[in-house]
Automatic annotation (TrEMBL):
Pfam families: Cadherin (PF00028). This is PCD23 protein. The keyword Transmembrane helix applies. PROSITE patterns: CADHERIN_1, CADHERIN_2. It comes from Nyctibius bracteatus (Rufous potoo). The keyword Acetylation does not apply. Keywords: Calcium, Cell adhesion, Disulfide bond, EGF-like domain, Glycoprotein, Membrane, Repeat, Signal, Transmembrane, Transmembrane helix. The gene is Dchs2. The lineage of its organism: Eukaryota, Metazoa, Chordata, Craniata, Vertebrata. GO terms for biological process: homophilic cell adhesion via plasma membrane adhesion molecules. Residues 9-78, 79-187, 195-291, 292-390, 391-494, 495-606, 607-684 form the Cadherin domain. It is found in: Membrane.
C-alpha cells in the first residue's frame, strides 16, 4: 500500500524534437533514434525530458544534448560544370589563370578539399591542390594550339575519401589563348585609278584591298578616307573597300584627286596603314567659256575724268579651237552707261566722272558673246569733299552743381558723308572752359573735369569743333551753353556773429529795435532766408520779421524789471536763427544783446516814511544825529538822489548832507527850550 501511494516514475520528451527523430522509454528513460539523422542539417539536438511520479501533477525536467557525429557522406561539388577563360599568349609563367572552387557539406577532414587536373593534354598548366588556383607553368607564345581543355577533380579528405567523378561532377575549364594585335594591315591594291569625268553618281572607281595576318578582330580591316575628299566627291565602303563617285565630276575643275586612305584593324590598340590613292579624271568635251571670277570687285576714285581705267576682266574656255575665241560686252543695267568695255581685251573704263555721295556702288554684268556672264562689283573710292556737320548749331543743357567729376553731360554727334578715314570725326573744344569740361575726341562725349560750383560760376559758354582729316575743308562748330543748377550747399551767414542794440523802456509794442542781415550764396528757395528767435525770448517779449530780419518789441518794456533770464539788469540776450528754404534746410545763428534804456519814471522812496530820533540835550555840536536814505528804481542820473530839509529847521539847529542824507547837529540843544524838532526832508 505504501508503494502504491508513491506511484511509478514515468519519462517523456517535452520539447526539442519537433520532427520526431527520437523516442524515450517511459519506464526506463532510454532514448533511441526513430528517424535517420543528418549532421549537415542539424549537428546538435537539445531534448527536454520530464519525469512524473505516479499521477501527481508535479514533475521535474532535465536537458539532454545529442551531438550528431559527421559521416563522410557528401562528395565535393563544383558550383559550375564548365568555365571558359581567355588569356593573352604573352602571359609569363606563374600567372594565375583560373581559381577552381568546390564545396563539401561535410565537416572536419570530411569537408577539406584537394584539387587536381585529371586531363593531361598539356604540361602548360598546374593547379594548387589546396587553393584550386590554376597557373601557367610556361609561356604558350610558340604553341600552335589556341585552346586547352582541362578537367579538374575535387576530392575530400574523409575516410574513405569521396571524389567528384570525372564525367559527372568534375569541372571542365576551357582556356583560350588570345591573339595579340601585332601586325598592321598592308595594302595589296594599286595606288592609281582612272575615271571619266561624265561618270554617273555611284560609279565604281576603285576597289581598295588591305590584308592583316592577325586573327579575329585583330585581323578585321575597315577602310577610311583621311584627306583629299574635302568636297565629298567620293564615298568609300568601309567594310568592302569599294570606292564610288558621290557626285558628278568635272575635269576642268579638278583633274586629279589624291586621297589618303587608311586601313584600320579592330584590335586594341588598333593598328593602321595608309596609302595615297591617285585618281585621274579623264576629259570629255563639255565646256563653255567662263569668267575667271564670277564676281569682280574693284574701286575707282570719284571725280576723275572720263576714260579712267576701272578693271580688266578675263574669261577662259577650256575647250580648244574657235570655241575658245572670246568677245566681251556690258549687259544693260543700272549705271551701265557710265562705263565702256573693250570687246577684245575685257578692259572697263569710265565714260563720265563718278560721285561717291550720289552712288557709291555699281553692279555691272559683263558677258563673253552668247555664253556665260560675270558680275562686276565696283566701289567708288571716297575723296574728302565733305566736312563734318553737327546736328545742332547750339546746345543748352542744365546740370546740377553736385555732379561728380568725370560725369558725362552730353554726347555730341557730327556726321560726315565721306567714307573711311575721310569720314572719321574728331572732337575738340576751342574756348576756355575754366578747367571744368573736356571732350572725348573720338566719341564726342563731354565730361566734367572738376567739381562744379554754381556760386563761383553759374554758366559756361564754349565752342565745340568737329574735324575730319582734311586740311583744307572748314570745320563744323557748335556753341555749348551749360547752366549750373543750384544745390543747397551753402548755409545762411549773418553779417555779424553778435549784435548789440538798445531800446527805451516804455515804448509801445511793435517798436523796431534792430535789423539783422544774413546772406546765402545759393539761389532760388535754397537762397531764401527766414529769420526766427531760437532762444532767450522769455514771455515772447520780442518778435522778428521772418523775411526782413527786423527785431521789434512785442510788449512794453520796463527797465526796472529784473527778470532772471537777462545777462545784466535791463538787458536781453537773444539767439537768432537764419534758415534757408532748401531741402534739407541749412541754418546758422547769431546773438543779439538788447539793452533797455532807462526813463525817469520812478520817484525816490525813503526806506522809512518817518524817522524817530532821540538825542541828549548835552550832545555836542557837530555830532551825527541821524541818517536818512531813499532809493530810486531808475538808473544812471535818473537814480542820483539829492536830499534837502524842507521845513522844521528854521533856527538852523541841524545840517543835512544833500548827497549822503547825513543829519548833523549845528547848535546846542536845550531840552527846556525845545522838546521836539520835526524836520521834513525831501529826496529828489
Amino acid at each position: 500500500p505504501f508503494l502504491d501511494s508513491l506511484g511509478v516514475v514515468s519519462y517523456r520528451i517535452s520539447s526539442g524534437d519537433p520532427h520526431g527523430r527520437f523516442s524515450i522509454d517511459p519506464q526506463f528513460g532510454i532514448i533511441r533514434t526513430k528517424k535517420q539523422l543528418d549532421h549537415e542539417t542539424q549537428s546538435v539536438v537539445v531534448l527536454t525530458i520530464q519525469s512524473h511520479l505516479g499521477n501527481s501533477p508535479a514533475y521535474s525536467s532535465t536537458q539532454v544534448n545529442v551531438s550528431v557525429i559527421d559521416v563522410n557522406d557528401n562528395p565535393p561539388v563544383f558550383l559550375t560544370k564548365s568555365e571558359k577563360v581567355t588569356i593573352s599568349h604573352t602571359q609569363p609563367p606563374g600567372t594565375a589563370v583560373y581559381i577552381a572552387h568546390a564545396e563539401d557539406k561535410d565537416s572536419g577532414l570530411n569537408g577539406v578539399i584537394k584539387y587536381s587536373i585529371t586531363s593531361k593534354q598539356s604540361n602548360a598548366f598546374s593547379i594548387d591542390p589546396s587553393l584550386g588556383v590554376i597557373n601557367l607553368t610556361r609561356t604558350v607564345f610558340a604553341d600552335e594550339q589556341q585552346e586547352y581543355s582541362l578537367h579538374i577533380a575535387a576530392e575530400d579528405c574523409g575516410s574513405p575519401p569521396l571524389t567528384s567523378l570525372l564525367i559527372l561532377d568534375s569541372l571542365a575549364v576551357k582556356i583560350v589563348i588570345l591573339d595579340i594585335n601585332d601586325n598592321s594591315p598592308s595594302f595589296t591594291s594599286s595606288p592609281l585609278s582612272y575615271v571619266m569625268e561624265d561618270a554617273e553618281v555611284g560609279f565604281l572607281v576603285h576597289h581598295i584591298i588591305a590584308k592583316d595576318p592577325d586573327e579575329g578582330r585583330n585581323g578585321q580591316v575597315t577602310y577610311h578616307i583621311l584627306s583629299g575628299n574635302e568636297n565629298k566627291a567620293f564615298v568609300l565602303d568601309k567594310i568592302t573597300g569599294v570606292l564610288t563617285t558621290a557626285q558628278l565630276l568635272d575635269r576642268e575643275i579638278q583633274e586629279r584627286y589624291s586621297l589618303t586612305v587608311m586601313a584600320l584593324d579592330d584590335g586594341s590598340p588598333a593598328l593602321s596603314a595608309t596609302q595615297v590613292l591617285t585618281i585621274m579624271v579623264l576629259d570629255v568635251n563639255d565646256e563653255t567659256p567662263i569668267f575667271l571670277n564670277q564676281l569682280y570687285e574693284t574701286a575707282v576714285r570719284e571725280n576723275q575724268d572720263l576714260g579712267e581705267f576701272v578693271i580688266k576682266v578675263e574669261a577662259v574656255d577650256r575647250d580648244a579651237g574657235l570655241n575658245s575665241l572670246l568677245q566681251y560686252e556690258i549687259l544693260p543695267g543700272t549705271g551701265y552707261e557710265k562705263f565702256r568695255m573693250n570687246s577684245d581685251s575685257g578692259e572697263v573704263v569710265t565714260t563720265a566722272p563718278l560721285d561717291r555721295e550720289t552712288q557709291d556702288v555699281f553692279s555691272i554684268k559683263g558677258s563673253p558673246s552668247r555664253s556665260s556672264t560675270a558680275q562686276l562689283y565696283l566701289t567708288v573710292l571716297d575723296e574728302n569733299d565733305h566736312n563734318p556737320l553737327f546736328a545742332k548749331t547750339r546746345y543748352q543743357i542744365s546740370v546740377r552743381e553736385d555732379l561728380e567729376e568725370g560725369s558725362a553731360i552730353l554726347d555730341l554727334f557730327a556726321s560726315d558723308k565721306d567714307d573711311g578715314l575721310n569720314g572719321e570725326v574728331t572732337y575738340s573744344l576751342i574756348d576756355d572752359t575754366f578747367g571744368a569740361f573736356a571732350v572725348d575726341s573720338v566719341t564726342g562725349s563731354i565730361v566734367t573735369t572738376k567739381t562744379l560750383d554754381r556760386e563761383t560760376k553759374s554758366q559756361y559758354t564754349f565752342r565745340a569743333v568737329a574735324s575730319d582729316c582734311s586740311t583744307h575743308l572748314p570745320r563744323s562748330t557748335t556753341i555749348m551753353t551749360v547752366l549750373i543748377q543750384d544745390v543747397n550747399d551753402n548755409i545762411p551767414r549773418f553779417e555779424q556773429s553778435s549784435y548789440k542794440a538798445s531800446v527805451w523802456e516804455g515804448q509801445s509794442p511793435k517798436t523796431d529795435i534792430i535789423q539783422v542781415f544774413a546772406t546765402d550764396l545759393d539761389s532760388g528757395l535754397n537762397g531764401e532766408i527766414e529769420y526766427s528767435i531760437l532762444s532767450g525770448n522769455e514771455n515772447a517779449t520780442f518778435l522778428i520779421d521772418s523775411s526782413r530780419g527786423i527785431l521789434a518789441t512785442n510788449r512794453v518794456l520796463d527797465h526796472e524789471n529784473t527778470s532772471s533770464y537777462r545777462e545784466t539788469a535791463a538787458s536781453h540776450r537773444l539767439v537768432l536763427l537764419a534758415s534757408d528754404r532748401g531741402t534739407p534746410s541749412l541754418n546758422s545763428t547769431a546773438t543779439v544783446l538788447i539793452t533797455v534804456l532807462d526813463v525817469n519814471d520812478n520817484p525816490p522812496l525813503f526806506s522809512s516814511p518817518e524817522y524817530h530820533i532821540h538825542v541828549k540835550e548835552s550832545i555836542p555840536v557837530g555830532s551825527h544825529v541821524a541818517q536818512v536814505s531813499a532809493n530810486d528804481c531808475d538808473a544812471g542820473t535818473n537814480a542820483e538822489i539829492t536830499y534837502a530839509i524842507v521845513s522844521g529847521n528854521d533856527r538852523g539847529h541841524f545840517h543835512l548832507d544833500g548827497k549822503t542824507g547825513s543829519v548833523d547837529l549845528m547848535k546846542p540843544l536845550d531840552y527846556e527850550d525845545t522838546l521836539k524838532f520835526t524836520l521834513v526832508i525831501q529826496a529828489t
